Each structure stands twice: as structure tokens, then as C-alpha cells.
Amino acid sequence: MSHAPIPSRALLLPTAAVLALLTACGSPASSGAGADGEPVQGGSLVYLEYQPHDSLYPPEAGFYPNGGLVNNIADRLVHQDPETLEFEPWIATDWEVDEDATEYTFTLRGDVTFSDGSPLDAEVVAANFDLYGLGDQDRALIVSEAINNYESSEVLDENTVRFHFDAPSPGFLQATSTINSGLLSAETLELAQEGFSPGNATEVIGSGPFVVSDEELGTGLTLTAREDYAWAPESWENQGRPYLDEVRINVTPEDSVRVGALTSGQAHVARYVQAQDEERVEAAGIEILAPQTNGVNNSLSLRFGNEILSDLKVRRALVAGIDRQEVVDTIYTDHYPPATSTLSSTAQGYADQSEYLEYDPERAEELLEEAGWTVGSDGIREKDGERLSLVVNEAAPQPRSFETLTLVGRQLAGIGVDLQILAADAGTYTEAINDPDQVQLYHSMVGRADHDVIKSQYHSRNRNTLLNRDPKGDSVEDERLEELLEAVASTADPEERDEASAEAQRYLSEQAYVIPLFEEPQVYGVAPSVHGIGFESVARPSFQGVWLSE
Amino acid sequence: MRYVLRRVGQAVVVLFAAFTAAFVLLQAMPGDAVMIRFENPELGLSPEQIAALREAYGVDVPAHRQFLHTLLGFLRGDFGYSVQSGTPVSRMIAEALPGTLLLASLGFVVAVILAVGIAFLSTYPRLSWIRGALRALPSLFVSVPVFWLGILLVQVFSFRLGLVSVIAPGPVEGLILPVLTLAVPISAPLAQILVRSIDEVYTRPFVTVVRSRGAGHHRVLWRDVAGNALLPALTMAGVLFGELIGGAVVTETVFGRAGLGRLTEQAVGNQDVAVLQAVVLLTATVFVLINLCVDLLYPLLDPRLRTKAGAAA
What we know:
Chain A is of the alpha+beta class. Chain A has 15 helices and 25 strands. In chain A, helix 8 (312-320) packs antiparallel against helix 10 and helix 14 (479-490) packs antiparallel against helix 15.
């Protein structure tokens, strides 16, 4: 149902027509004054979420609804500036990393408490990372994707904790700054997966500026400000308790309702404003904020384990046959810059690959001819009686995936390639995307502001989007790619790490393993009465410095 | 009394059949909820980690043992945990059910009022000049997509006119538009049936007899025709419950309301077997109860059936 909303798509036209009519005859609604000034204390912010959260276990906070909550109820050891991506103290005042990045020592502030009153000391920090670094299968609690090579923790004294790694883990410092490493109280860490579930949100205790004070299963949550919050990172404008008294998070799955509620002044902030709605929202005096996700771009991974795609010429042809500028111009807005590498230009370790990504349909056709694929009677190429037909998954979490893939399909049809879009029930879908013979092009992205992100996406033991390890045979096809990715995750020297990442990106380009499309933002609509909204390095909202002028 | 007992016995058999069928069908679907949740590449888990999780969840236990386990759990009132979120299913149902019941019953009441209104107005002699229009209404209502209607109502009454709020509205305020959205398509088949059976009853000889004795239009309509025309509509009520649930899926999603419809929609999307099993059983129970009530009410309304039931017992 959620993957194939065919009925609703069929209804889009009449609805859109009626909406256009209504918009035309009404006056734009806006609320409050736009002037910045002294922050105002108090007030309740209404925030519209697209989906309900499904867990508050920090390693599962990658899902946006989860991350938006965890980011506000849990602090981190270290703060990463979302603009500069530099690190600054938060719960840890100081840290030391040994030369080969296998030992990290953190000194804590010592004056921080969780919202249940228990102290945030070295002991509980150690317990946090023991869980996130190792997971606990008996409680169905997974390992954090951000933490590599974790071995153990060691409490040196009340406010000093050391972490050991069995191999270099240069990404760990950044990992401690992500929402996947949100610090929770000792009691919360005892919960099993069920304990982090919806319905139990008020029992998940962090030291953040807000606490979950009320939950209505599946429809909303209330975050209440912590009066005694006094340990914000230094770069935050607000050093004390949040200006707001509370944030009311309202799950509103229907796009037009989110946008309409925002423009009619019933809500202050809405997450996931679709590209096609941006103009209407801005016309109503609502600001569009589109923080970047700073990781692997929205892209198509070419599963080279599939026979057709095992041919480098075919892969190169596909890359050359796609006009990403047209995709961005037709489907998206200026907030979605065309990709110039597998990584976003704002990501750590980014290296420009545009020379490999030029749109050249003639060259694409040449390559396909060379590879032996000749145009058949219906315009689709054939070789030995086989049609050049490929399947791509509709990626439900990605904005306008279906529209994008439809356009990409039209572009590929121009060079004689047939592209089918897979939209199926969840079980069929999950099976298909793990089989290179069912889904040859995998549409996805991943946000994380660390070099490790490229390994997360492509390494065979992580997201494995290229299916370099075929789940059936369990053997790894391209060992060279594995080595390059592992080098990114285990090179301690920062400059060498940049180089390692550049090399991995170059290799992905040379092998034409990936068709990057655009740099994906998270798009929020923010009413003019809202000031000071911030976002962490992967675009989850932060409400600590928000105030309302109404 | 034996009639009642037999009907209850049949109901229990139907429920068990629904439970079994749901279990078999859910098992037969490709993949399973643990796979969907944890083999999702977004989590970046390694094959070993996934294998360990599968074991922890007991997904690969033989189906017949799972069936017994689930059945015994259900008999004890333990519906297990949502595989998608880990929330206890009983809690999810308990939070979703009251909202949906309220929405569905109000929707039904409004639908009946609408249907009766349309049906009786369209047979009024004085309104014969708009009879055609009134009689076309049910066809229009039945073909209006709930999704579209919901969005239209929200756009007009909430966003344009600002009469009601859809974001965190008051308890009454929050029901107005959803109830209306749900009632319109439900009222259509009811109105159609009422109109048809009123027409039909009017042609019966007894009406002519009553008329010839000098009874006015009102008396004939309310005392003689209405009672007879209501019976077929009552039978429809059981069937319409299905429409209510279907309508609730869309209505609750559009209006962001907690409820069984939205719960079902999400569970289907995630193939959350535990939740679906409970929802199917719950829906089947309500269906069976409604039909049981209708069957037991029928003899009270129609004396002819009373004797038949009496003879059967």
C-alpha cells in the first residue's frame, strides 16, 4: 500500500486542478511579523511530521522521524558544526586520539544530568557506547552503522572514559557527534527493542534540551523544555533552557494537508515539503529551508553482478545516457543541486568527478553498439535475442523517486534501454532489491557528514547497495573496491583520508558503478514567526534555539 | 434460544476460519516482517547480524508451531508485538479502536440521516420538480473518491475558510470533516436501496387500499411504506461496515487521526504480520457481531420471519 499508492496517484490530477482553483481565488495566508529581534521566552511550536517515528534507539535514528526526536532529547559527546563540519566540545570538554586512531579518551563536563536526575558520568557514557558499538542481539538492538571496529570501553575516573578499537577507527570522533550516538540514561540502556518503541517514548531518557512528555501512538508527541538545561555547545546562540515551552509534533502524512496547514497558519514548521509545492508555499510567505544531508548523493547503484551490467561499456553508456540537469530542472528546484560525484559537494572527502558524468547520448549509443547491443524493432536494443531491459526500485523514502525514475526511463529509452520501475509490497520489494537479477539499478542515498559514509553505502558488509557481495552466494565480486572503501574507514591521517576517499570516488566513476543524480536536501517549510531553527549535520531539526514572534 | 445458540456457534466457527485463513495467507506472502525491517539496506547490517536477529525473533520456526503459539496467545488475549516497531499489538489496537469506533458510528449515523433524507425527499410529491436531481445524488456520492472528498473538505473548510482546524483540533472540531468525508460514500448505497424499496412498496396493492381509505401522503409514507422499505436497508448495514473500514483507512490518513484504518494501512505497508493478524480477527469479529445482530433483529421487525425462526427452533 505505501509503496504503490496507485489510486492516489490516479487522483492527483483532479485534486491538483481543484487546489489550483482554490489557490487562485484566495489570498495568501501568513502569520506573524518577520522581524528578528530579542528572543521571546515561551510558546508552543507546532511541527508537522510526515511519518510516525518507529524507534528512539539512537542507532536507528537514521530514519528522519526518529532522528528529529533523538536530536532534541539526547546530547552527544562532541558537537559537529553543520556548516564547517568542525568539532567542538559538548558533553565532552576535551578528547584525545592516539596516532593510529585505535584509542579515544574523552573528558566529560561532569555537571550534566539526565532528565530523570541521574548523572551523566563516565560510567554511563561507557555503557552507551558498549551498546551502540557492539549491539545486543538478544534484545534485538542493532550495532550503530556509524561505529567501526569497536572493541571495549574503560572508565578511567568519574569523568574520563576511554574507548578501544581493534583496528583504526578514524571516523569515531564524528560518530560520537551523530544522532546515532545520542547519550541515554543507564536505566534506558537496559530497555529491549520494545522499550524504545512507539508507545514508550516518555520512558526514553536523555540529557537533551527537551523531554518527551506526552505521546499519542502514531499521531503525535509533545516535547517539553528542560528548565535546567545548561550545557549547550558553545556555538549555540541560546546557552540556557530552550526558549520554547514545548514542541507539539503532529504526524500528518498527507502532503497537501501539511502544506495547507502551514500556509493557513495552523502550524509553524513542516518537514518534507515536496519540490512541486515549494512555489506555493513561498508564495504564501513561508520560508523554505533546505539543509543538505552531506553524504552519498541521491543516486542509482549499478549492480555489476548482473550479467548485462557486468559489461563496463554498458555501465558507461548508462552513465552517459542520463541528463541529470534535466532531472533537476524538471522534477526538483534549486535546492537540489545536480551531483558532481558519488558524494555531495558538501560531504567530507568530496572529489569532483564531473568529467565522468557528462551527458553524451551519442557516446552512450556508440558504447552500446560496441558492446553488441543493436536496436530492435521497437527501438529497444537487443543482443542474442535478449532485450536490454533493466529494473529500478522506486525508493519510497526519497523525494519524488517515481517521477525521477520515469524521466530517467525516458532518457534511457532514447539510447535504446528499457527501464522498468519496481513498486511492490514490502516483502516482494525487499527480496527483489537484494537480488541483482531482479533489481539492477538501486535508487538510494545516505546522509552522514564523515568520510565513512562512502563505505557505509558501498561496502559489502554495510549497505552493500552495489550488491558487491551477492546475498545468495555470499562471495565478494570486486575486492579492489572493498580495499579502497576499507582504506577510507581506517586511514588515521586526515589528509590521507581525503585522498583515500577521492580514490574510492574515482574508482566508482571509472568503473561506472554509480549514476549520481543530485545532492539531496531535507526541505522544511518554516512560518515567518519562527526564528532560530537549526539543523544538525544531516539536516535533523534542532528546537533548542527556536523562538516565536507572535 | 437454540436458534441463538446455533447462530453464536456459527459465529465462532467463522472467526476461527478467518484467523486460520489470515495466518496462512500472511505466511504465504513473500518475505517476512523481520526481513523487511532488518534487511533494509538503510540499517547497514551485516549478514551475520541479520542472521542473529532472525534467530532472536524466532522467524524461522516451523509454521505449524508458530500457528499454535499465535492461536494460544490470542486465546489468552496476548496479540504479541508489532514486528515493525516493537510496540505491543494490544496497546496499538486499544489506542486505535476507540477513535475508529467513534468515527465509524458517527459516520454511519450521518450516512443514515443523509440517505433517509434523500430517499424521502425524493418521494415527496411537492418536491417532484427536483426529484431527478435528488435521485441522481446517490450515484454522484457513490462515485466520489473518499480521498479526494477529504482533501477538498480540508482545503475549503479548514485552509480557505478557517472554520475548523485540522492540526490538533478539539475533540468535536476534529470529527466534523472526517465524519462528513466518511458519511457521503456510505450514504449512497443506503439511499439507493431506500429509494428503490420505497418505490416498490408504493406499487403494492395494500398502499392503494390504505390510500383509498383517505390516508394522506405522510401517513402512508411513515406508517406503511417506511417500515417495509427499511428491511432491505438493514441487511445492507452489515455489508456497509466493510466500506466504513475501507473509508476509515483513507479518512484517517488524510486527517492524521489515530485509528484502525491508519494502523492497518501502515501494517500492510510494512507487512507487519502480528498487527495484521489481530486486525483481521478484530474486523472479522465486528462483522460477525453486526451480522448476528441483524439476524437477531430481523424477526423482531418482520413477523413472517418470526414464525419461520420459531419453526426452525
